[in-house]
Amino acid sequence: MLPIITESTRNLCKSTLYLVLTFATIKLSGSLYRYIRSLKMSSSSSSSSSSTTDTETTRRNRILSTKLYFDIPSSKVPVIYSSAYNISFLGIEKLHPFDSSKWGRICQFLNLDGVLDKKCIVEPLEASKEDLLVVHSKTYLDSLKSSPNVAMIIEVPPVALFPNFLVQKNVLYPFRKQVGGTILAAKLAKERGWAINVGGGFHHCSADKGGGFCAYADITLCIHYAFVRLNISRVMIIDLDAHQGNGHEKDFANDRRVYTLDMYNPGIYPFDYEAKRYIDQEVKVVSGTTTDEYMKKLDEALEVAKHKFDPELVIYNAGTDILDGDPLGMLKVSPDGIAIRDEKVFNFARSRNIPLVMLTSGAVTPKLFFSFDLLYFLSVLCQLGFCHKNAKDTENREHVLLVSMWLYEVQCQSYSKFNNKPLKKKSDRYGKFQGKDITAIQVPFPVQRVLYFPWHSSVYSGEVYMN
Ligand SMILES: [Zn+2]
Fold first, then answer.
1. Residue 370 has pLDDT above 70, yes or no
2. Any keyword Nucleus (predicted)?
């Protein structure tokens, strides 16, 4: 018996040693690779930073050689859209509350109402790598070659599991088409007085960081192209999406050529206190703000802006997530209110002959949000059901049951909150969980964070629903 044990122990030690050595080698070569790469990068960045003019010249040349600015015949109206804007990815795009096919539906409605003929819409080109390098670094663009990074930016975790070529085709290509549209919109606005890109408005993305469903900084790019190609030197961004436009705020932090008027709900994503410092005119609209209160604040804000800055171009980020019932925006502006808001901004620019670019930016619907919640809930239940089946002892089974009850409670409460429906009776809610009392469940904080992130962190603004 003894020699066998010794032999197997020896074998075990050997394999452990091999494993440790292999692991250490991988780690060491990884660290070495990163060190060499950082050395290369720092040497190249120090030489490039020594000459800001070189960077400016490269940027200028890229802008001058772009294909995104092309001549548009007068038969076309200044509305930019392509069916390639819409994101469809085997249905998993529905796992994010953002409505990723709203752009197509907008044009469909306009078409059905006879307001807009399909043939008159301007189709933009896709922003190429060279176009994007005008603002983004190569390192940032390369980071999008990793599906997990894109999954983090668009907040749809299953995307991390797909090969990058599929993510490029189904997610990043539609985004790049929309970027092309935003850039072209400034040229069209200068020629026609106004232009609408039925897409774009990715105001959470800055030159070096994406987030909140925004992978490219289209507003920053559009403004830099306008500086060089349209002979414009003063731009006003009017950001009326419910969320703070932290991306363009960081990009134009100390650039006096750009004035930012940001009217947003401070109680929701992104809580970017650094970017907040760079807003020239900040107007806070707290959760629950009604149409009348909103319009009063907007009138006052536009009046102030009129006297503070004299722009040659207005970029209007017109997110409709201020709509009553939008689970992310948390404001209570009526559908008519949205139209009045847009009209006010158009009047602000048109009455002073300032070209205006409108971008559609964010919007979600409660119905869609519910399907997102339901899908999430079902997927978690499937996983838990699997764990439950495989749980070996009673204690484990009990634990799995408690976690699934806790998740169920989160779903019930969030559904009730965002759809303004009363919670069902407790007995109805927990009947299927063998009458266990949900309030007795204690889920450790780290577990709560894991379960929340990234599905719920932005949606619930960090609120914890457990009592
Ligand atoms: Zn928004």
1. no
2. yes
Locate 2 and state its tokens: 């003894």
371-415 pLDDT tens trace = 444 545 554 555 455 444 454 545 555 555 555 565 656 656 655
| Cβ-proximal residues to 327 (8 Å cutoff; 6+ apart), any chain | 97, 364, 366, 369, 418, 459
Average pLDDT, the chain: 78
Amino acid symbol at 222: C
Strand-pair partners of 206 = 209
Separation of CA 6 and ligand 1 centre (Å): 65
- Tell me how far apart the alpha carbons of residues 290 and 263 are, in angstroms, rounded to a whole number: 14
Domain ranges of the chain: 56-364, 367-452
Distance 464 CA to ligand 1 centre (A): 22
Distance 258 CA to ligand 1 centre (A): 21
Q: Is pLDDT at 16 greater than 50 in this prediction?
A: no
Backbone angles phi, psi at 448, to 5 degrees: -60, -45
* Cα 122 to ligand 1 centroid, rounded to whole Å: 25
Whether 145 has a pLDDT exceeding 70, the answer reads yes
Rounded to a whole number, what is the largest CA-CA distance in the chain?
A: 96
* Residues tagged active-site: 204
Q: How far is the CA of 231 from the centre of ligand 1 (A)?
A: 30
**d(Cα 91, Cα 18) in Å, to the nearest integer?**
44
CATH 3.40.800.20 holds for 56-364: yes
What is the whole-number distance in angstroms between the Cα of residue 50 and the centre of ligand 1? 38
Q: Read off the tokens for 399.
A: 């634990």
